[in-house]
Amino acid sequence: MKGALRLAATDRHAEALGLLPGLPLADARARVTGLRVADHDAEADRHLLERLADLSIRYTPMVMPEPPDTLILDITGTAHLFGGEDGLVRDARARLRRHGFTVRTAFADTPDAAWALARFGASSVAALPVAALRLGEARETALHRAGLYTVGDIVYRPLSGLAARFGAEAATAVRRMVGDAESPIAPRRVLPPVEVERRFPEPVARTDYVLGVLADLLADACRMLEARGEGGRRFEVAFFRSDGKEQEVAVETSAPVRHAAPVVTLFAHSLARLEDPLDPGFGFDAVRLAVPVTEPLAPGQPDLDRAPPPGPALHALVDRLVARLGPDRLLRFHARESHVPERASRLRPGSPSGSWPVPPPDEPPLRPLALLRPPRLLSHVVADVPDGPPRRFRLGLHFVHIVRAEGPERIAAEWWRRPGLTRDYYRVEDESGRRLWIFRHGLYGREETSPRWYLHGLFA
């Protein structure tokens, strides 16, 4: 029987017939003729639970899915927005039931207690069975043999004796249940540094009014950013409809921003570009704005008319193009963690990220902006052995004589990717004043392949 197929979940009609999860499928079919069953899809259940967690963010950003069928919500500081805890749970129940879900809810001071009260339907933590501690079948049986059937039988006894007899995990489970040990929530979404929202007493069906609310929220968020000494790089808005649908739109900026007007313009362009236009349906009942990515931003000096200082023209142009055309239509170089020159940058959509190396003041750049791909092989190279710079080489049909050289800059191969040879880079200048970036691929007498010389870049 251990290898038999068993029921993983049942609906209320099946439960009324005595069919419960864990029952062997053969026994279930023997009890009910014409029983309809479907294979359990654990992955689909997980995706559904995560989707419900995303929808529950309308109540609080602190939402943790707990497979296979539980959501833990920390509603501290948010219940009053729905008329209290009872109002919040009524709203959540109504929305879930409209989609065909059976819902059991419970309030408690700890996540473990809330889960157990909803699961077992007990009136208090003390009345919960010891199975609520989730210690496993073996320890549950051992607790029963010791005459301990409920959490109340345990919680008033010295926990040191419980730990000595049933293990430290049993004592920790009791402490977590009553709040004497930490039981943190790991939310599905990381809380953003800045977040503001507006809830409406009645659903609002006017899109222009909701967009005006978005502008007000942006102004509030920018004031909060100013108090933090930061600017936003990414702004995300979520529109919550009364039928449970949520629509999200995000914009990014090339530089940190804390003035609402340019971000309002970016959202206007992004909303106009949506394939699925913003549809109020039966009305919006909430709008939430988050700023998940921020960067330090020093205070700016306003003009005499108190207008905000204008941002760099290039950043503003990039932001408008991305908002109008989409991030995939505008590619920019992004810095990447690699010493290998051809891997030190990459083209990615949207605004640039990462810091670029800056040469010391009054010093020429260490590397050229223009690289040859692939590097050009040089012939007839005359160089000081083993580590000296080239003195002469042939480039195309002409010989090049070097009058100045700096280096080497030694770059080892990225061994974690694939084996390769060491490179020694030199900044050189020829008789005509051209400045070139040249490297020797391989080391004389220390690597198996004979070294070769390449031209990799040209300095402006």
From TrEMBL:
Region (Disordered): 341-362
InterPro entries named among the record's database cross-references: DNA/RNA_pol_sf, SulA_CellDiv_inhibitor, UmuC
CDD domains cross-referenced by the UniProt entry: PolY_like
A Pfam entry, by short name: IMS
Keyword DNA damage: yes
Domain UmuC: residue ranges: 9-117
SUPFAM superfamilies, alphabetized: DNA/RNA polymerases
Keywords tagged on the record: DNA damage
Protein name according to UniProt: Protein ImuB
Organism: Sphingosinicella microcystinivorans
